[in-house]
Design brief:
The protein has about 240 residues and is α/β, with parallel strands linked by helices. About 35% of the residues lie in helices and about 25% in strands. It has nine helices and ten strands.
C-alpha cells in the first residue's frame, strides 16, 4: 500500500484499482478494517466495475492516528483530503462509498464540503442515543474510569467518556438538511448496530436528496449479499 498525508500531517494508507486506464472517473471507498473479515469493502474494491480508490481513515488499517469509535467530523476532513489528493492527480471523484461508521461520515462530508455529487452510504447510523452493545454494557465503567479498551477482530479500539459524549452530540438531522447532491442508503433489515429505523429517518430528513433506499435481507455485515450490494452500487453508478 501507498500513503498520502492528511491535513494533520498523518499518513493515510491507500490502494487503487484502475479497471479503466483511459477513464479519469473514480470512486472512493472507506472501509473499517484492513482485514475485511466480515465487512464487504474489500469485495466491493475488487469486484466493482469502476476505478476505485480505497483508503483507511485516521486510526484504521495501517494509517497513523488513534483508533476510536468517535471522530466523524475528523473522518469528513480525511475524506476531503482524499478527494483533493485525487483531484491533484487528475482524477474526477464521482462518488464516495462509506461503510458502517464511515457511511455516516460520508453524509457528514457531503454536508460540510459537498464537492462529490454521489454518496453511497452502507449502514449509516442516525440515532446516536442508541449506543453499540459493548458501550452500553460498559457505560458506567467508562463514565467512572474515563475509558476502556475494546478488542474487535483482533484490533484494539479505545473508547473514552469524551468519545461517547462526542458521538451522542452528533445532530444527523442537521447534517441531512445540509447535505448536497444525491445520497443513497443501503441497509440490512436485521442490522443490530445501525437499526433499520435509522434508514427510515435518513430518508425522511434527506427528503429529495435521498435518491434511493435499498433494504436487504441481512445483518450489519451484509453476510450473504455481497454480490447484491455490488449490483446496487453499479446500478447507482450507471444512473449517474
Amino acid at each position: 500500500m501507498e500513503y498520502f498525508t492528511n491535513r494533520s500531517g498523518l499518513q493515510l494508507t491507500y490502494s487503487i484499482s484502475i479497471k479503466y486506464p483511459n477513464v479519469q472517473r473514480i470512486y472512493i471507498i472507506c472501509p473499517m478494517w484492513p482485514t475485511e473479515i466480515f465487512f464487504l469493502s474489500e469485495f466491493i474494491y475488487e469486484n466493482l466495475d469502476a476505478n476505485v480508490f480505497k483508503f483507511y481513515l485516521t486510526g484504521t488499517g495501517s494509517s497513523q492516528g488513534e483508533n476510536t469509535y468517535a471522530g466523524n467530523l475528523r473522518d469528513a476532513d480525511d475524506i476531503d483530503d482524499a478527494v483533493k489528493f485525487l483531484i491533484e492527480r487528475g482524477y474526477s471523484v464521482e462518488g464516495i462509498i462509506g461503510n458502517a461508521k464511515f457511511g455516516t461520515s460520508a453524509i457528514i462530508y457531503s454536508a460540510i464540503y459537498g464537492d462529490v455529487k454521489t454518496i453511497i452510504s452502507l449502514s449509516p447510523k442516525y440515532d446516536f442515543s442508541l449506543l453499540p452493545p459493548f458501550i452500553k454494557d460498559n457505560y458506567e465503567s467508562i463514565r467512572i474510569n474515563g475509558e476502556i479498551i475494546h478488542t474487535a477482530l483482533g484490533k484494539e479500539w479505545k473508547c473514552t467518556w469524551n468519545m461517547i459524549q462526542e458521538m451522542m452530540s452528533l445532530d444527523m438531522k442537521y447534517y441531512c438538511h445540509k447535505a448536497k447532491g444525491s445520497i443513497y442508503i443501503i441497509q440490512g433489515d436485521q442490522d443490530q448496530i445501525c437499526p433499520f429505523a435509522d434508514s427510515i429517518e435518513f430518508e425522511r430528513e434527506l427528503k429529495e436528496k435521498c435518491r434511493g433506499r435499498f433494504v436487504l435481507n441481512c445483518d450489519e455485515f451484509f453476510i450473504g449479499v455481497f454480490d447484491e450490494v455490488v449490483e446496487i452500487i453499479e446500478k447507482i453508478i450507471y444512473e449517474n
